[in-house]
Write a structure and sequence with these properties.
The chain is α+β, with helices and mostly antiparallel strands. The protein has a single domain, classed as Muramoyl-pentapeptide Carboxypeptidase, domain 2 (2-Layer Sandwich), CATH 3.30.1380.10. Helices cover 24% and strands 20% of the residues. It is built from four helices and nine strands, in the order βαββαβαβαββββ. The strands form three sheets. The protein has a five-stranded mixed β-sheet, with helices on one face. Strands 1-3 form a two-stranded antiparallel sheet. β8 and β9 form a beta hairpin. It is globular and about 35 Å long. The two termini are 28 Å apart. The N terminus is likely disordered. One of its GO terms (biological process) is proteolysis.
Length: 194
């Protein structure tokens, strides 16, 4: 597995379809996201090593059910978090950059499950859909989508993650604030913020 060298910072690992047998659709590296603009300068899917280890457990659990994981986002630079906050300053769905996003710590991941044909399982709402129905256990979500959400939730909890109650797609390591915030350097390599 690849990793990017970081001086005096926790190691971020590069996730690819080849190294992790996952699908990757970094929507913030395109204009097909809630802002309609490209947010990421680099299209790298990164996670801090402990989060990567948890994801590897989730990948194995999903494979045991004949499913795969599709990742929408991992490490998110604070600059990108600010762009999202500027577009939608709603702490229900976007972490206030002044408080720090767990994505900017490299310990949060946005994902879904796909079947053997790489079709996303129906989760009732789309990724990053900023509506109440995106929350886990919302009563307006159809039964099949609720079962799919529970399947994803069970997989991720068993792999050691915690869930964001407002977003069916968002998972993070427990006690995420124990990890330092990271910021992209001029060379695009994430470093601990001073």
């Amino acid at each position: 597995m690849s990793s990017l060298p970081l001086s005096s910072a926790p190691r971020l690992r590069l996730l690819t379809p080849d190294t992790h047998n996952i699908e990757i659709d970094l929507v913030y590296a395109t204009d097909l996201n809630l802002t309609g603009k490209v947010i990421y300068q680099q299209a790298h899917c990164l996670l801090l090593e402990p989060a990567c280890a948890g994801l590897e457990k989730a990948i194995a659990l999903a494979a045991g059910m004949g499913l795969r994981i599709k990742v929408f986002d991992g490490y998110r630079p604070p600059e990108a978090q600010q762009a999202l906050w500027d577009f939608l300053p709603d702490p229900t769905f976007i972490a206030d950059p002044r408080k720090g996003s767990n994505h900017a710590r490299g310990v949060a991941i946005d994902l879904t499950l796909v079947d053997a044909d790489n079709n996303e399982l129906d989760m009732g709402t789309g990724f990053d859909e900023a509506v109440a129905e995106s929350g886990h256990h919302h009563p307006n979500v159809p039964p099949e989508a609720q079962r799919n959400r529970m399947l994803l939730l069970g997989t991720m909890l068993a792999a050691g993650f915690t869930a964001n109650p407002n977003e069916w797609w968002h998972y993070q390591l427990p006690n995420p604030t124990q990890y330092a915030l990271l910021s992209d350097g001029a060379d695009g390599v994430p470093r601990m913020m001073s």
